[in-house]
Write a structure and sequence with these properties.
The structure holds 2 protein chains of 2 kinds.
Chain A (H helix, E strand, L loop, with lengths): L1 H24 L11 H21 L1 H35 L2 H5 L7 H13 L8 H10 L4 H13 L2 H11 L1 H43 L1
Helix pairs in contact in A: 2-3, 3-8, 5-7, 6-7, 7-9, 8-9
Chain B lengths: L1 H19 L1 H35 L2 H8 L4 H14 L4 H13 L4 H13 L5 H35 L1
Helix pairs in contact in B: 1-2, 2-5, 4-6, 4-7, 5-6, 6-7
Classes of the chains: A mainly alpha, B mainly alpha.
């Protein structure tokens, strides 16, 4: 506990170092910069203290809550290590720069497939995909493929699928995956139709304007 | 069983990667650890909230709100909550699994999980910067409708 307190006190100094390291090593995730330690873990420690107090006042409730927490932890710790290793491997070995080249206009089915793969091999939350998408627009990726990439990033990330199957069961996961394979291109197509040619040009202009800033 | 397959995949992957390029393998492991440490605070917080919520609320309450009998309202409610919350999948799936054990329905959870991943009301300002307002709304709206379809199909598949 005292070790934790010390870490909490040093949180600021440590994490600015951390942030610098993170920013340097993860050019793919401009949104993923780390907040200070205390800010990141603050809510957890507050809840933990509230939980311990509650547990002391209401031991019955506390006991159930403690068991619940231990159960979820055991479950997580048993499935998470291989999933995160797969996530790391995909992130390192998938050559994004080369793949983006094949997602331009007229890239056809191959472009769709590559957009799907690019999104599925990603790591990180959906909002981290938008800055990445901005880079793809500048490299000439067609809007439909870009939207497919966004859809895949949100839903069919490979490590996440493994995790989904471990938590919710294979049937749930397969039903969702099957529907996503149809739904993601469909959503991309609908969006593309809604905005039309004028909208497409607007988006390209929008991203070029931002680059110029 | 499934967990063993995952471990086998990870070990084979690591071995192949290690033989091909040690440096890259090390980078992959670092990335794995960083990604994990990144979600850890949120994961711990959700675990604690969930542990107390499940200790306080009786399974019957969860069943009434999100169970199969909660029907269309339950699905719409779950879809709306999923649309406005921000939560990584690594946090959302344990949450959904715990709710499932406590009596929530597959349809309602499918709506929640799907909108959580595809629809982002809070992140519209970020999305707008890349895609513009029109495309952002079109994408989010069609993703919302799609999520409802997923819920219905899930109901057919899993009851």
């Amino acid at each position: 506990m005292s070790e934790q307190m010390k870490q909490m006190q040093n949180g600021r100094a440590q994490s600015s170092e951390q942030a610098a390291r993170t920013a340097g090593k993860m050019p793919n995730q401009p949104m993923g910069q780390k907040k200070p330690f205390l800010k990141r873990y603050g809510a957890f420690f507050l809840l933990l203290i509230a939980g311990v107090v509650t547990g002391l006042v209401l031991p019955d409730l506390g006991k159930i809550a403690l068991n619940n927490t231990i159960d979820s932890f055991k479950e997580m710790l048993s499935v998470l290590p291989p999933i995160f290793i797969l996530l790391g491997l995909l992130d390192v070995w998938v050559d994004r720069a080369t793949m983006i080249k094949y997602t331009g206009k007229g890239s056809g089915f191959k472009g769709v497939l590559i957009a799907f793969l690019l999104g599925s091999a990603a790591a990180g939350p959906l909002y981290a995909a938008f800055p990445f998408a901005a880079v793809m627009i500048k490299k000439g990726t067609s809007l439909t493929n870009l939207l497919i990439f966004i859809g895949a990033w949100s839903t069919t990330k490979i490590p996440m699928l493994a995790f989904e199957a471990a938590s919710m069961g294979p049937v749930f996961t397969l039903v969702r995956l099957g529907l996503s394979l149809v739904g993601i291109p469909l959503i991309a197509w609908v969006t593309d139709r809604v905005i039309g040619q004028a909208g497409r040009e607007e988006i390209i202009a929008l991203n070029e304007a931002q680059e110029a800033k | 069983m499934f967990t063993y397959i995952l471990y086998a995949l990870a070990i084979v992957g690591l071995a192949v990667s290690f033989f091909k390029d040690r440096k890259k393998t090390k980078a992959a492991l670092m990335k794995a650890w960083k990604a994990f440490e990144n979600i850890l605070p949120q994961l711990l917080t959700v675990f604690l909230i969930l542990a107390f919520a499940l200790a306080i609320f009786k399974p019957e309450t969860i069943q009434t709100l999100l169970g199969s009998e909660s029907g269309v309202l339950g699905i719409l409610g779950a879809a709306l909550i999923g649309s406005v919350t921000l939560m990584p999948g690594f946090v959302a799936f344990p949450l959904a699994a715990a709710l499932l054990k406590s009596g929530a329905g597959y349809m309602q959870l499918a709506a929640f999980v799907s909108t959580l991943m595809m629809v982002g009301i809070i992140t519209i300002p970020v999305e707008k910067k890349t895609f513009g307002m029109k495309a952002t709304i079109a994408r989010n709206a069609s993703a919302f409708v799609f999520s409802l379809v997923v819920a219905v199909v899930m109901g057919v598949a899993l009851g």
